[in-house]
């Protein structure tokens, strides 16, 4: 059982889509179950916070662990990865110039198939969970493989590490390669899926940390019978569903060919009862107006995976367009279509991809591209701000996974899924008198030292004059796992960098 | 004076635009002046290499420093940053949703003006040089500010740190804000520029490490008189020139308005004698066919800055289109239009931006964008491979800066500008018998350990079954400064991570 905990310092979280809230000199009390039980603003020191709060909460001094931010550090909600393929992690960064359908056959299926060997699965999945935690991912929706035992192992590892995880055995009984097919027909597919569901319910009966999610790979890879069966199970057991939609033009053409009677790609899933308020749809790059409207009506949500969409030349997901239509959006790393296991990288790329959508093409009329037929203002609106992508990375992702009342922000009653962020404070020697020409200083500090390069402080250099929103922007654009000093899930410390001291 | 050096292990460098060469079990001998004097392939151990080479070179055992790669490490040529604004470094990552012209006034000019205070300039420039070295940048073309003393200080710092640098005092005597104007007319502008040229010739008479570069900010910011004077000086002193071209549509419209008689943007520079074989043109996003042809005829080169072009919504530079037209291209970070001081990040983004150029738009015909009027094959050709962006980052950049016979690859007669790259070798416990379900291992290694997360090994996880080209792809997509263990310029060790041992 954990102790009660008091966190003191600066807290930053998303208030609304385009607004971050900054709580300075604040204190958050987290009880033994990991729940936020009090948030107090404007304390000037830890002692005062403790006195007032302990009395109010009936806490005993000796039963509280206190943690205070250091200068420039802040607490931020844990990141939520709404779409990641754990078994593909060893292929991160490897895709050549392939696009979706050839990439699946060349890189993905052989790697996934190889994880039927449990020692290999253990090695790969262990590293995925460690890595994603180190990047601040406190909750993730994982695709596993078709293999029951390896899928169960992934659930075991997430539970042991304390990472919230929805783990899905991949269902794929159509168009699969011989060496990696989900065999035996829909009943067998469903039975194997049930085995993994039962396992997760057994190891985590509350489903608080680990829970199952139904995972039809994508429409072209599932027989009608399997999709029908999964739709029925989703309804009967109120289970989450994750799948892919409209990622790539070749894929969309294939769906049209395989389902000639369906109005569109979204309608294929809808016809099988797989478009529910608990459904996560990865990509959604090329949706039509009719599909967006249907998805909105059904309450399904979208996992936006910008790293993947750029790397696999899939397209640019119109996030603003989706939000305008009332469709909920979170971020996904989509490892290994996406090259990075970091939601922060996904947030950065979400900013950049939105700018590609906003670019004015063909300025010189040289036939490079025809001008878009939407107007400039509409185009400029496509741009996502730092505040907006951080909203998608936390609150947005929480809503996509149905966790919006539990995690994603700092509110009384929510659970403490958080990361402690630290940036590199560049030493201020501007008032030194000696060595005014400064030629010696590079030599001296080259290769390290606290706050210098080479330390574990990462690449975000803070000179001290930046406003808080500028610090956050610097973090989003240049931050990495070195800035994530500690990570908690439900109050439990699940990751800590070796160089960080716990105060 | 340095010792002779013998480097032993794996060497990877660019052979041609789309081909990397891998030299395993090889040895490279570098003499005291920093020059590569021998490259020997297929040694099986260091002792054998030493025996054969020392005899051949007349080297004495006691006068050689030997460095061997560790498992999985390799030597790679230093990166070349063909476009970076040193004074804008503190703004890296800060641009809100601004585009070029408002960004200049809101963020850039105030920051640059503030560096007239030398202690501040020393602090900022010192950090820029440390950071870029730590990312493997062995040569850079720097914009400084209009200030003479601060520009000279930047040159001093580069020389002291041992980073090859072309340092340019920024000329901008038109449309500048009151607080940051290059005053007094063309003669005064030229005199100030000459002061910095003289300083650099004094501190590094050979120009081997630090040399001046003429820097008209961009056409709209320079009077005709100043551009004329700079053009004359470039010719008389055979000086390098750097400027911006065709980055942003608003900028292009402004140029058209300010220079109504010029055929196009490139012709403006050409008219003043500023388009020479020693000219670096940053961005070149929206060039016309006529401009590309003119630039090719003059032998000027392009600094492609993908991070900046995406972040400032400038556009997507058609690198393949430029290469097809015979225009030389290197990579630039363009800090702080670009958010990162890392050429590796620029290489990664060059891959991604090229894929945005290759995307098939408007698959659903929903009016999002009109289909491009170039065919699919042409579009697919836009995609740049990992090999190609690494070529741009090394050989390409060297050619842009006129250093192609000195650096950018490993050849006898070239100088030893190199980085030692190390990736994270994931421990192989696949054959362990105990703990087969693996649930304990995450706990155990969480938070660090050699090769685990949290160590200084970075995010590139190598499982051991990857081919060499796959390791390189992983490095490009997930690498950072943690993978750059040591950096040399002209044989001198100029950066070393604290965790690295020099053998």
From TrEMBL, chains A, B:
UniProt entry tagged with the keyword Metal-binding: yes
Keywords: Hydrolase, Metal-binding, Zinc
InterPro entries, per the entry: Amidohydro-rel, Metal-dep_hydrolase_composite, Metal_Hydrolase, Metallo-dep_hydrolases
UniProt-listed Pfam families: Amidohydro_1
Domain Amidohydrolase-related: residue ranges: 75-494
Source taxon at top rank: Eukaryota
Start and end residues of each stretch annotated as Disordered: 431-453
Cofactor: Zn(2+)
Official protein name in the record: Guanine deaminase
């Amino acid at each position: 059982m954990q102790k009660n905990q008091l966190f003191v310092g600066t807290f930053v979280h998303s208030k609304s889509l385009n607004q971050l809230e900054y709580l300075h000199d604040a204190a958050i009390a987290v009880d033994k179950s990991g729940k936020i039980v009090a948030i107090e603003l404007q304390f000037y020191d830890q002692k005062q916070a403790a006195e007032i709060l302990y009395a109010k909460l009936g806490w005993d001094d000796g039963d509280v662990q206190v943690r205070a931010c250091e200068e420039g550090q802040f607490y931020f909600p844990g990141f939520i990865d709404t779409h990641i393929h754990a078994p593909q992690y060893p292929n991160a960064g490897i895709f050549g110039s392939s696009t979706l359908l050839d990439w699946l056959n060349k890189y993905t299926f052989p790697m996934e198939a190889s994880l039927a060997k449990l020692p290999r699965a253990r090695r790969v999945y262990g590293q995925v969970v460690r890595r994603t935690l180190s990047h601040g991912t406190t909750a993730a929706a994982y695709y596993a493989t078709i293999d029951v035992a390896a899928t169960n192992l992934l659930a075991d590892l997430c539970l042991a590490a304390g990472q919230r995880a929805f783990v899905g055995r991949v269902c794929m009984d159509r168009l699969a390669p011989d060496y990696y097919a989900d065999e035996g027909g829909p009943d067998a597919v469903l039975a194997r899926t049930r085995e993994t569901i039962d396992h997760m319910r057994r190891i985590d009966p509350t489903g608080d940390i680990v829970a199952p999610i139904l995972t039809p790979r994508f429409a072209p890879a599932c027989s009608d019978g399997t999709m029908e069966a999964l739709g029925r199970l989703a309804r009967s057991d109120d289970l989450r569903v994750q799948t892919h939609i409209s990622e790539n033009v070749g894929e969309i053409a294939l769906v049209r060919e395989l389902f000639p009677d369906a109005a569109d790609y979204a309608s294929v899933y809808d016809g099988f009862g797989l478009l529910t308020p608990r459904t996560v749809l990865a990509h959604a790059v090329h949706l039509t107006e009719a599909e967006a409207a249907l998805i909105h009506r059904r309450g399904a949500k979208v996992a936006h995976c910008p790293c993947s969409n750029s790397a696999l030349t899939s397209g640019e997901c119109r996030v603003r367009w989706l939000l305008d239509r009332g469709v909920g959006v979170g971020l996904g790393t989509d490892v290994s279509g996406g090259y990075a296991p970091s939601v922060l990288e996904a947030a950065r790329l979400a900013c950049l991809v939105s700018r590609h959508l906003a670019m004015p093409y063909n300025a010189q009329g040289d036939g490079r591209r025809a001008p878009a037929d939407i107007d400039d203002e509409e185009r400029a609106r496509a741009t996502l701000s730092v505040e907006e992508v951080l909203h998608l990375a936390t609150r947005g992702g929480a809503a996509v996974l149905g966790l919006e009342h539990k995690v994603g922000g700092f509110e009384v009653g929510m659970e403490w899924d958080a990361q402690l962020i630290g940036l590199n404070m560049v030493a201020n020697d501007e008032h030194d008198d000696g060595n005014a020409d400064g030629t010696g200083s590079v030599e001296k500090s080259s290769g390290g030292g606290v706050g210098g390069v080479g330390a574990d402080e990462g690449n975000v250099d803070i000179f001290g004059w930046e406003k808080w929103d500028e610090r956050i922007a610097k973090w989003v654009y240049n931050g990495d796992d070195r800035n994530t000093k500690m990570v908690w899930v439900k109050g439990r410390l699940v990751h800590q960098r070796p160089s960080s001291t716990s105060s």
